[in-house]
Each structure stands twice: as structure tokens, then as C-alpha cells.
Amino acid sequence: MSELNQVKSPSMLDASIPVISLIGLLALAVTFFGDNSSYGPNQIALLFSMGIAIVIGLKNGHQWHDMEKAIVKGISLSLGAVLILFAVGSLIGTWLLSGTVPTMIYYGLKILNPSWFYAAACIMCGVVSMSIGSSWTTAATIGVALIGIAQGLGLDPAITAGAVISGAYFGDKISPLSETTNLAPAIAGSELFAHIRYMLWTTAPSILTALVLFIILGFNGTSEVNNVAIDNLSAQLAEQFDISVFNLIPLIILLSLAIKKVPAFPAVAIGALVGAIWAFMFQQELIIRLSAEGSDQLTANILVIWTAFFDGVVIETGNAELNDLLSGGGMSGMLNTVWLIMCALSFGAVLEYLGMLKKFVNAILSAAKSTGSLIASTVATCIGTNVITADQYIAIVMPGRMYKEEYQARGLDPLVLSRTLEDAGTITSPLIPWNTCAVYMSGVLLVNPLDYIFYCFFNWINPILAVIYGFIGFNIKTLAKKVTA
């Protein structure tokens, strides 16, 4: 008991120092390392800031072994995502080797009009994500192909990534199959389908506005498209791979598994295995070319397909642009992403354990007098939690728990809280460069978050619209008042 009595709650200064340190160090990382800041510098910034928080915790009477347990617990939250990341790395490797991704790119170059490409990419990802309830799976399959198509069309990969992420998160947000769409109403105390219908008031205008912006960008960029280059790229794809509609079967199998609610890790792992089988069945010429000189056919298949799982594929065509398009994947390609996720969640776990996050929320809540300011505070807390803890689930659960009683006390329907949690917690996660969602999207789409975040129009518009609705009182559902005798 004496040890417990010695522990002090953090002051606002205590809570602010690690966050300010992190912001300053991340700014320095970007200044000195630019696009490479996510490949080590950001991780060091997170660990240094965590060290500062630990020193403050020791000053306030906390024991190191308790903080260490909190760090281990924080890291453990990422292990499910890590398994999915490794499976996705293998999937990209085998789907490149099998011709699945090249086939999607090949047909995409034939049918997608450059003027409508960005909007079409957003719609395609929205439909797929809504069907399967996973923005991550959508980005790793349709998104990867769309990035390749954009490069073939001479379009901007950063805008394409913004369109992919906008569509993927729109679909994820309104899908009853999505984990976050089920989590938010569970935390707030609302009903799932009522929650989805209520979200449409902010979600539908946001995605429509985003589509208009993508159409404008598409028509403004069409002059840069080189039809001759497209034809050449299509011909080179056909030279390297056996292009056939049969190569799309691994995609159909994966989407079917997702629709049947098979968990993400086994579904993606099965997709990777199917890709390996398809590579063996349809891409023997390519496998022989990629194998070591003098290898017999059986050895070549074993080595090349096995390598695709853990280290991806490297294809040399004589065309640097095409090499980048067709090379990549493998578990090893996800190691830096895993490193960043573990560092970010460790930092967030320490701040949550020491009570620093709660300190910020209590300060914000004391200033939220009106309904508009309460919703704005919830949005700010969700975004801040995404920044500090680097995890969208924590950004839904923690603010939901902290604000639930306040929403009830003010006579607001639980739907208002559940919608706000999704409008801010789910949607803004890929906008924070060190958040697990942004790290994942960057690792899969191979576009730096600092480049694509400006084009994630849906993800920006949605939380802003939620705050505007709060202040003008539009579509803010209140609890029915009880009639007294």
C-alpha cells in the first residue's frame, strides 16, 4: 500500500512533454531524412519520446517493471496485425509471380479511362471494401493493381493512393462486416444497422465531395497520358507473363473468403498459397527465367516460389519503370512496417499506463460546454489518440469509454457518439504517418504517407463535416424525454 500511495498522477506539463518531444523529433526526422524518415528515424523519435515518458513516470513513483509490462501489452496488441502484414507480404510476392497482379494491371490499362481513373479507383475500392469489410485487404489487392495501372497511364501514384484509401475507408466504414463498424456501436451502446444508417448523413456527402475532387484532378491530368507508352507497357506485360483471365481466380477466391467472414490472416494466407499454385500452373517460363542458371525445373519451382513467400520477386526487363512495377512483395518487405508499428504502440502504451492520455481528455472535456464543442472534443480526442497511440482501435475504444457518460448526461442518443467515433477514430488513422494504418498503406501501396495524405479527401472531409453538424445542430439525435405524471 505504501508503494501505491507514492504514485502521483501526471500534471499537464508531465503529459505534454513526451508529446511535444515526439512532435519535435518527428519534424526533425522529416527535415533531415525526407521520404526515408519512416525507415528508422521515426522509430528512434518514438523510442526517445517513450524514454522521456518513462523518466517522468519514474519521477511520479511508477516502477519500471510495471511500465515494462504495459509496453509488452501494447506490443501484443499489434501481433494480429503483424501476422496479417506478413501474410500480405507473401500474397503480393506470389500474386506478382503468378501473374494475378500483372493481369489486373494489363486489363486495367485496357478499360480504365485516364480522365475518370481517380474517381473510378475510389469507387472500385469502396465497393470491394464494403463487400468484404476490410480496407487493408482492399488496398493489398485492388489497391496494388491500381497503383500499377496509374504508373502505366502516367498518372500520379500519390493521388491514386489517396483515391484507393478514400474508397477503401468509405467502404470499410459502412460495411456491417467491418471490425471498426461493429466496435463503435458496441462501445457507444447503439445498434449496428441503425449506426450504419446514421453514419450515411456524414459519410455520403463526404464521399460524393471526394469523387468530385478526384474527377477534377483526373480531367486536369489527362494531357500527360502517353497512349504509346501504355501500348508498350501492355505488350511488355504480355511478354513477361502468361496473361489470362484465369490469373484472376486467386483474387476471386480471396474476396469470397472475406465475404464469408473468414478471418483476415487465414484468408490472406490462403490467397498467398493459391497464388503460389497458380504460379506453378501458369508461369513456368517466368520461373525458369528467374531461377539460377543450370537449375532443373523442379529445383527452379521450389526456389523461386519459396523465395516469393519470404522475399518477393525481382524481375529484370530492361525497363526500369516496369521493373519497379513487377518487383516486390515477400515477408521481408514488411519488416520495417512491423518495426514502426511496435515502436509506435510501445510509446502509446506507456502514455496510457501513466495516465497522460486521460489527463488530456479530462482537460478537453472541462472546456466542452455545447453539443458542438463536445463533438469537436470527441473528434479531437480520437485524432489525438491516433497520433499518440498509433492504433485506430484504441482511438475508438478509449474516447468511447471516456465520453459515453457525458453524451448520456446531455441527452444525446448513443448513435451520435458511435458515429463520431467512426468519423474521427477510423477515418483519420491512415493520415498519421506513424499510425499502424498509415504504415500498412504505405508498405502495401509503396507511397509515402506524407505524399498521399493530401489526396485522402474522404478522410479529411468526413471528420470536418461531423464537427460542422455538431455546431449547427444538424441531424444530432437526442434521447426521447420521459413523460412524467
Automatic annotation (TrEMBL):
Residues 167-474 form the Na+/H+ antiporter NhaC-like C-terminal domain. One of its GO terms (cellular component) is plasma membrane. The chain crosses the membrane at residues 12-33, 39-58, 70-96, 116-137, 144-170, 198-220, 241-259, 265-286, 298-315, 335-354, 374-396, 452-472. It comes from the Bacteria. The keyword Transferase does not apply. This is Na+/H+ antiporter NhaC. It comes from Litorilituus lipolyticus. Belongs to the NhaC Na(+)/H(+) (TC 2.A.35) antiporter family. GO terms for molecular function: antiporter activity. Keywords: Antiport, Cell membrane, Membrane, Transmembrane, Transmembrane helix, Transport. It is found in: Cell membrane. It is a multi-pass membrane protein. InterPro entries: Na/H_antiport_NhaC, Na/H_Antiport_NhaC-like_C, NhaC_Na-H+_Antiporter.
